[in-house]
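dumping this here before i forget
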Amino acid sequence: MKAKQQMFQWMIHVFFIAVVCACLLPFLLLAVTSFSDEMTLLQEGYSFLPSKFSLAAYEYLWRDAENIVRAYGITVLVTVVGTFVGLSITALCAYPLSRRDMPMRKPLSFIVFFTLLFNGGLVPTYLVYTQLFDMKNSILALIIPGLLSNGFYVLIMRTFFTSSIPVPVIESASMDGAGEYKIFFRIVLCRSRRRFSRRSGSCRRSAIGTIGLTAWSILPTTSCSVCKTC
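structure:
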């Protein structure tokens, strides 16, 4: 019995070692290839043991360092601003919908839900952002489209507020003289830190994904004044 268990454990270890190697070998090949000569790669193909050493790739990166640093700066800026503003908009939209005493609560919730069922498509979205909002060739084109990209997160956060924030707590705070803003920032946000940390991950992914989509669809393909790398 013990021999069978040990054999099973060894098989599991071998399997996961193979999975780790399959994940790490492409990165190792990429690192080795970066030190290989370009003509050697074209003639001999990729190899873990390059026959000719070269630093031409890193020399090219060093010559274009200004544009690379600028591009990464734009990425960090869009990610940070998009995450913060997107999370704020989601919370400010979800909290009123979680209040049972809010007028037009059900119709507004249905409007948010309706966006999950129907989408205008890529071409109408492009026309709205470029012609109506005039955000072509602007850094706003990388931030605005991803702020509230999915009403699904609004409904999730609304459900969280409804189930996790007791109504008597809000009523007692209101009776003590707290206004809506104070209730939201002092009570609701303090009790929702875990949910906000999880939602921030979705906002970061949405912001990063929006960079590639809008750079392809909204930003021009000739001269880009945002990152100057097009």
